[in-house]
Specification:
The structure is a homodimer of 506-residue chains. Chain A has 506 residues and is α+β, with helices and mostly antiparallel strands. Chain A has 14 helices and 27 strands. The mean pLDDT of chain A is 95.
């Protein structure tokens, strides 16, 4: 009989995955709910993680010639209405500003006053307001391309929210570009998807599948939406970034026109692409275990927690001196363009201290006691290994090898996630098998979903809708890989031009 | 007779200072008005400047133990009402969200729908919403201090707006800290004012005066407001950062209580401190000349514009090769913790090209022609010198000395601004002289204001109001320097405990 192992998080993933997610966030101190409906508070440990993700991504963007700018938070209602599908897509979830001051009302309480002549929508995304600027910035082909990114907060009023995954306000970046030709705009759309892939795979250690969205899952107003899709540990899919080829739709809506070399006036071609704090939710559900989150070293809020062990008060000066010297030395080293982040935790709270850092997901825990110091060694626990497994290193060896150890953890997390995804990705050609794969009663745990099914699809909205209705399973993407491999639609049996990824999704 | 010099900006500062300011921004491509009332678009050249200011400040904050976090954009009306003076101070300029979706109305047009039960105010500042989090985070003296900063957008509905100086939406940072004692909170209030001083003087090259605000200019709800005040070239004052000691006012409002070591429950002591994109307005008005802005090298969007001069098409390969190699070499060098930023501009538009970079305020313009290359030299113009003054450097000497040249420009800008402020800061003890100093008819140009008058003040609101009414002159601060030097109130002649700085202000 397997020994019952006590875990830091209760319930475990197996017992109740959604509740495990909430408890992991609570235990990690990454973020918390706020008293404002659907909005979250990102706490310092979570914000440091976001800063590192932003930095990595910002560097990748800038390397492709993108420059940052900032546009208004508010969008006049008439701007949003310029693109019909676009406003249709966002109308149900808009926070609307209608007044510009507060005044004492008849009841003596403050009430909204100073009604605006035109309501302002708090940006859910900024195509229309940025498009207005672009229309002024572009007049000739010589002004193109324009490659802009904005780091900002956006609001999409959500009725059912979950921290990081779905919140009414979230932080994100939105890129917007303008090009002289459709081909160049399509190329940029794909280039930015590749940038997201690099960021998510190399930094967040989350393997993803690249592909096109089906029509029904496209960004409102886009001609083509590309996405990267990751598998969570409950085998549901999470979209970790999208890149849209907008054709001339938004150029027409915002009058973004330019004169060609041949002196014709033409509408420009635009793209937009976004990724958000939602990635943090994906990171948690990709790497977390029953003891809490595991932060990939390249984006971790800090890399190592130094835990001085002071058994007798008289040991304190020696132990703290050793600890502080080690911290200084480690902090001078660089791991992937960042200084190594070190936390010293000298609280005298016994074993709870080590568990706190496990729950916070820090890659390395370094115990330093009087005995270790006598041997000039440290005792190191890795977050990608079980809590009790610790190894002794000579102090100097640890300093010399820390970046290699961090790299090993980074690779290990990616490989584990990749193996998991492979294990739960199944090619299914038979409709009955497909339905069984996604029917909870056939799973050991009802909250665990089948995984990714790679199956044919005829391209019709009917088949897509039927599967969604029957199984709450959607087409996550039409992957670039194996594009144009013919098969049969898993639903109706008609010809399929490309296999697609079916899954339940966040 | 002085030769009439043609300037790049029209009108000049002397002709029309407010209009000069608008034209300088336009010519620099830093930012522009948006179609959304009172909101600005910060363009890439302006945003890069803001990124550099943020980075400098963020490093200074973190060095004092401050950590970044993020709190909701929306503040429930009831939260804002918790502190009476606070809501009173902001009620007249709040953007209020009252609905959470859009629906087709009887007219067929989209209208706000889904009325909220409680209106949400778009944060004008976040004391009350962050206070709510603090009340949950603090329970014991062991949890203190809490040192938090947030980089965010805020909205204060302004009727008369000017880019950077006064906009309805602006970008800022707001720091919020919680302490166990009043003394510690006061110390932090002062420490953060010193951090602002370092940032503004050492990075933005703007000399400032530190001091206390008078009661009437205090932050709504604060016990004490400290500020730094800079002098613009029209001799008006600009507040470039404020730091507030909030006493226990917001702790009481948000129920931030803690248990002391002696196990008593007490309200905590809080501070807040903020600085914003307004600093960019100050930077423009401190250093700009009649040819446009001058960016201090430590925060400049880029450091050097390389301008290849191609007289014959066949020169192009050689000139561009030389230019690109130089750019690569310069970019590998570091100036004040940042890689040197280099722009290559090979547009063939004649003299307009050099003027474009002058108007953008880039510290160095480097002309590279076939003749220069033959001598392995470059021809360098400095933005702190007149446009026609250029010096020849050997290429290698320029590479070796560029950081020293940038430092010289940085120091020069600061010293120029300091000399200007000293020249226009006058100690005035006589009421008549004071009124004359601030009376436009006595100035050569009505739009130029007297400057800073250092005069006594009895501390009464009556005298402060009278001077404001008569002259639109306000008390900018009660400077730390010469605090407790007794004199006479410039208005009523009663005893003054400390001299104050009087000025017209932005």
């Amino acid at each position: 009989m397997a020994k019952q192992v006590k875990t830091a998080i209760s319930p475990t993933r197996d017992e109740d995955y959604p509740e495990w997610y909430q408890q992991v966030i609570k235990a990690s101190d990454l973020a918390e709910r706020s008293p404002v409906r659907g909005c979250m508070v990102i706490k310092p440990w979570g914000y440091a993680l976001w800063e590192n993700i932003m930095q990595a991504m910002d560097n990748l963007f800038k390397a492709t010639g993108v420059k940052n700018a900032y546009f208004p938070l508010f969008i006049p209602l008439s701007f949003l209405e310029k693109e019909a599908e676009h406003v249709e897509g966002f109308a149900k979830e808009c926070a609307v500003v209608t007044h510009h001051r507060l005044e004492k009302g008849p009841s003596g309480r403050l009430e909204p006053a100073g009604a605006l002549t035109e309501p302002l929508v708090v940006r859910p995304t900024s195509e229309t307001i940025i498009g207005d600027s672009f229309s002024k910035w572009v007049s000739s082909y010589r002004d193109l391309p324009i490659l802009i990114n904005q780091w900002a907060n956006v609001v999409r009023w959500e009725m059912r929210t979950r921290i990081f995954l779905r919140t009414s306000e979230f932080l994100w970046q939105e890129g917007h570009t303008v090009h002289a030709t459709a081909a160049e705009a399509r190329e940029r759309t794909r280039m930015m998807l590749d940038v997201y892939t690099t960021c998510v795979e190399d930094y967040l250690a989350m393997p993803v599948i690249q592909g096109h969205k089906s029509l029904s899952e496209r960004f409102p107003g886009a001609v083509d939406t590309l996405s990267i899709e990751a598998m969570m540990q409950d085998r549901k899919a999470l979209q970790a970034g999208t890149s849209h080829f907008l054709g001339q739709n938004f150029a027409r809506a915002s009058e973004i026109k330019f004169q060609t070399a041949a002196e014709n006036e033409e509408y420009a071609w635009t793209t937009s692409w976004g990724s958000s704090t939602r990635m943090i939710g994906g990171l948690i559900m990709t790497h977390g275990d029953d003891d809490g989150i595991i932060l990939p070293p390249k984006v971790a809020s800090a890399h190592a927690a130094l835990l001085p062990i002071i058994r007798k008060p008289e040991d304190r000066p020696v132990v703290m001196d050793f600890t502080e010297k080690l911290a200084r030395e480690l902090k001078e080293k660089t791991y992937h363009h960042r200084k190594i982040g070190v936390e010293i935790d000298d609280r005298e709270i016994g074993g709870a201290r080590g568990w706190d850092w496990i729950k916070k997901g820090i890659p390395l825990r370094v115990e330093i006691g009087a005995r270790d110091i006598a041997q000039n060694s440290v005792y190191v626990g890795r977050r990608d290994q079980t809590p009790n497994k610790k190894s002794s290193f000579s102090r100097d060896q640890f300093v010399a090898e820390i970046t290699a150890i961090l790299d090993e953890i980074q690779q290990n997390l990616f490989q584990r996630a990749l193996a998991f995804r492979k294990k739960h990705t199944v090619k299914i050609e038979d409709r009955k098998a497909f339905y069984e794969f996604f029917t909870p009663e056939n799973q050991k745990k009802p909250e665990i979903h089948g995984g990714f099914a790679i199956s044919g699809w005829c391209g019709s909205n009917d088949c897509e809708s039927k599967i969604k209705e029957d199984l709450t399973v959607t087409i996550r993407c039409i992957p670039f890989k194996n594009e144009n491999v013919k098969s049969r639609c898993i639903c109706c049996g008609k010809q399929s031009d490309s296999p697609v990824v079916f899954a339940k999704a966040y």
